[in-house]
């Protein structure tokens, strides 16, 4: 199943990875992707980072034109506060 895209970039969901080898660990409490009900991710949600201390960081960017309860939705290519880039894993935009 193809996930939603905004401007040709895939939405990030919990479980996606980062360019630093981390993983998205928090997301929307009510907005999900697919039948598996995987939470979509917004600016301010959390990621892990094995390269940077303290190893938990926020997503620093989001799409202001696509909001989830007032928070901009995170898309592939957006950055975290440690500088890692978000990567849409399986089921990314086709």
TrEMBL record:
Name recorded for this polypeptide: PAAR domain-containing protein
InterPro entries from the UniProt entry: PAAR_motif
Top-level division of the source organism's lineage: Bacteria
Gene3D superfamilies documented for this protein: 2.60.200.60
Lineage: Bacteria, Pseudomonadati, Pseudomonadota, Betaproteobacteria, Burkholderiales
